Amino acid sequence: MTGSQDPLLQPFTLRHLTLRNRIVSTPHSPAFAEEGMPKERYQRYHEEKARGGIGMTMFGGSSCVGPDSPSVFGQLDVGTDAIIPYLKSLTDRVHGHGARTVCQISHLGRRSTWNAGHWLPLVAPSRVREPAHRGFPKEMDEWDIRRVVGDYAAAARRCRDGGVDGVEVMQNGHLPGQFLSPHTNHRRDGYGGSLKNRARFMLEVLEAIRESAGDDFVLGARVDTDSKLADGLRPEESLEALHLMQEQGCVDYFNLNVGRFDNDFELGWFAVPAMFQKLAPWLQTVGLFKRELDLPVIHATRILDLATARYAVSEGILDLVGMTRAHIADPWLVYKLQSGQESRIRPCVGAGYCIDRIYNEGDMVCTHNVATGRENEVPQQITRARKAGRRVVVVGGGPAGMEAARVCAERGHRVVLFEASGELGGQVLLAGRAEVRRDILGITDWLAAELGHLGVVVHWNVLADEETVLAETPDVIVIATGGLPDTRLVPGAEACLSTWDVLSGTPVSGDVLVYDDHGQHQGASTVDQIAEGEARVELVTPDRHACAEMGSSNFPMYMRRFHHKGVTVTPDYRLRRVEHDSDRLRAVFENEFGGGKFIDRVVDYMIVEHGTVPNDALYGALRSHSVNDGVTDYGALLSGKRQPHDGAPALYRVGDAVASRNIHAAILDARRLCQSL
User: Fold this and answer.
1) Residue 664 above 60 pLDDT?
2) N or C terminus: fewer CB in 10 A for the chain?
3) What angle do CA 395, 396, 398 make, to 5 degrees?
4) Taking CA 166 as the corner, what is the angle to CA 165 and CA 168, rounded to the nearest 5 degrees?
5) 112 vs 140, 586, 659, CA distance in Å?
6) Is the pLDDT of residue 3 over 70?
7) Nearest partner of 478 among 422, 411, 415, judged by Cα
């Protein structure tokens, strides 16, 4: 299919605004705002998507319109004129590359916290607490309603003054949706009761925005089609509300989704499902609504590949397809489509790390595209070195080693990679053995394909030693040999298995205990895998709850599966020793808060997850042969400068060969080091 025929590459008009193609990134908060303003990092993130060919980059997820709607996950503050020059800079940069912009504006209502920002009470249509943020809102008086409607209008005017092409009002879960849903609206006045009354607030907001911003300004609404709540907004009511908005004549498009995000489970299961969910889970549901509407429809939930996106547009299910997380993984997605490089698009694997970071009060990063959000320090596009052709030897074919080899090859160097096994992937291969994490293999599949495209020489089944490496007469050596399971954390633990053992296929049965002192996927996915069989499984952790290092897009999935499979979860207990008890094992634990309270468990098998220890013997052996004694200059690394070591060979190590971390950290190590070689 040529570009002129591809339905995804056809232009589309919203109101007066022409988009160059059908692919958009829907509003989200990357938590890059600084004091509520979209400064350089925020602007650069969206500019990159425009450079990469996107039709429209929608930004400002849940941007706060008023003082009693404080930020809880790094949103923009559109409640002040101070934002206008920053919006102008952002839109100029995006428009300069041919893309359009829409900012989502919102009042969070009960979905915030009173003890942030100005410490004002939360407001909502009724006094119904939201489980996620735990605040008890004030029931809004009519003067509150008038004030907040005015806040929306003022926010839209600021966006227009900042050169933004339009705004989107967030309904579901936020204040307009809280009015619309009978679950959160118990009012007996003109804003409660019938659906028409419950929709009144949303309609007043839309009318005020249109009056404030004018006719040549795009206005959209994000609306949930089904709250998935017994006493919530039902599909037929959602459709009726959409018809009311459509008939009003103020709104230009609908951004439709399914479900809500009032608690961890609902967020990870409905709103932003991770890799355990099927692709595009709500596409057909949204399509049913599309048939009943006259206005254009956007939808974005887990549409990660161009085949699904193309189907959605060509079949008339969507007018514009939201590929939000797909653009976090590869902001040059559209360019690669247009230039015949669709096979080189870096895939979103649905790891959920981007979402988990935000909801754990961090900034958004992608599990395997470490340039996203760091575009000024770690460019998305790798440039060829001025002095290309250096001889680089990489030892280890996990994500760190593969990224090191990829980046060095992109820089024009001659790269040789030694892998001890017959397959590239390292620990990612183990992770992908778990049923719920199979999609994680997309990370190393993409890296392996890139190495092939770039002509990297890979020596399989070679356990490289000093002689092997030095025989290549390298200019640079990168040790990416990873780590090995750390099970010897207490006396007797050598009798335990590791999570690696189980994920590699070692059978266990009977009474099985998994001690997880890591809190990441390794322990949880092992528990889930064992519980598929007949074993009786208990998960013990010293943390306050299981999966302590995960966020809202992954934690709920594991806990749901644990409950359904009968897994016993015991938090707050630290392993002290393991003993043999006849042909079984006895594990002794001490309560973290109990002041000497101990429990023991006698089991058939015990598995320990305590991270990894660096597999760094080769690194140690090569230090004396290197010009830099294996030292990495952090100042140069963090400033994007080359390592200040002349002569050869220079020796470096990356990933878990340095310390036990995660996929993102391993890839970032390699990228920062090698992008300046």
Assistant:
1) yes
2) N
3) 150
4) 150
5) 15, 46, 37
6) no
7) 415
Question: In this predicted model, what pLDDT tens digit does every residue of 94-130 receive, in sequence order?
Answer: 999 999 999 999 999 888 888 888 899 999 999 998 8
Q: Minimal CA–CA distance to 458: which of 422, 410, 413?
A: 422
Distance of CA 210 to the CA centre of its chain: 33
Residue in this structure with the two tokens 């590239």, named with its chain if needed: 424
Bridge-based pairing of strands 650-653 and 218-224 is unpaired
Contact 606, 580 (CB under 8 A): no
Q: Which residue has the tokens 């890139």?
A: 450
How far is Cα 176 from Cα 549, in angstroms, rounded to an integer?
Answer: 33
Residues 317, 423: contact at Cβ < 8 Å?
no
- Closest by CA position to 94, among listed 28, 48, 38: 48
Q: Which helix (H) or strand (E) holds 43?
A: helix 40-51
- CA dist., res. 295 & res. 245, Å (int): 10
CA distance 370 to 420: 26
Q: Residues 155-162: what's their mean pLDDT?
A: 99
- Rounded distance between C-alpha atoms, residue 605 and residue 417, angstroms: 38
656: closest CA among 324, 427, 409, 434?
427
| Contact present, 487 and 496 (Cβ < 8 Å) | yes
Distance CA 383, CA 379 (A): 9
Q: How many residues does the chain have?
A: 677
- For β-strands 56-64 and 100-106, DSSP reports them as parallel
The pLDDT assigned to 305 comes to: 96
| 15: amino acid identity, one letter | R
* Whole-angstrom distance, CA of residue 55 vs CA of residue 39: 22
Q: What pLDDT was estimated at residue 4?
A: 72
pLDDT, mean over the chain: 95
Tell me how far apart the alpha carbons of residues 521 and 542 are, in angstroms, rounded to a whole number: 16
CB 164, CB 103: distance < 8 Å: yes
Is there a contact between 652 and 674 (Cβ–Cβ < 8 Å)? Answer: no
Strand order in the sheet with 650-653: 457-459, 414-418, 391-395, 476-479, 650-653
Structural domains of the chain sorted by starting position, each given as residue range(s) with its CATH number in brackets: 7-319+331-345 (3.20.20.70), 391-484+614-674 (3.40.50.720), 487-610 (3.50.50.60)
Q: Using one digit for the tens of pLDDT, what is the confidence trace for 510-537? A: 999 999 999 999 999 999 999 999 999 9
d(CA 488, CA 659): 16
Separation of alpha carbons 447 and 121, rounded Å:
50
- 517 half-sphere exposure, CB direction, 13 A CA radius: 20
Residue type, 19: L
CA 3/CA 40 separation, integer angstroms: 33
Cβ atoms of residues 445 and 361 within 8 Å? no
